[in-house]
Amino acid sequence: MALIQKDRRKKVSVSEMNMTPLIDIVFQLLLFFMVGMKFKELDRKLETDLPKAGKPKPEDPLIIKNELWIKISVKAGTEADPNPKPHYVVDQKVMADAAHLRRTLAAASRLPGAKEDPVILDPRDEAHHGWIMTAMDYLREYGFKSINFKQ
How many folded domains does the chain comprise? Predict the structure, then answer.
């Protein structure tokens, strides 16, 4: 009787299944479907300004768009006020403060066609989020439509 019990303990059960190949196949299928997915629905939702197909006609007007560049960085604080301050530069002109930025954007918005021209924000890594939002608020206030970030 002891011999039979000994044999039962030596038997190996095959109740566990190796899941590694199954996981590999699932990831392969996931990758296949992600790469093969058509992005037609996403393309329809994105606003793009693509050129027309074909050669331009001579009667088509030549539209030159000017870009308004706004760089935002940090101006170091002084001994009296050690807190960092925003440093705005609009088209290579240094702004004294946010009020100067607001006056400059108000003047730029009065130029013909300026509100349709692209505005490019170029914040530095150390620029505070609030400073960027201030510039964006002023741009929206004066009706600028195309606000982009430098990549």
Answer: 1
Phi, psi of 126 (to 5 degrees): -85, -5
SS3 content of the chain, % helix, strand, coil (to 5): 40, 15, 45
CATH number reported for the structural domain that contains residue 111 in this entry: 3.30.420.270
Determine contact, residues 85/94, Cβ cutoff 8 Å.
Answer: no
Contact present, 88 and 121 (Cβ < 8 Å): no
Instruction: Return d(Cα 151, Cα 132) in angstroms, integer.
Output: 15
> Cα-flanking dihedrals φ and ψ of residue 86, to 5°?
-75, 145
pLDDT tens per residue, range 83-99: 788 889 988 888 888 88
pLDDT digits (tens, 9 = 90+) for 99-133: 888 898 888 888 887 888 888 888 888 888 888 88
Decide if 96 contacts 84 (C-beta within 8 A).
no
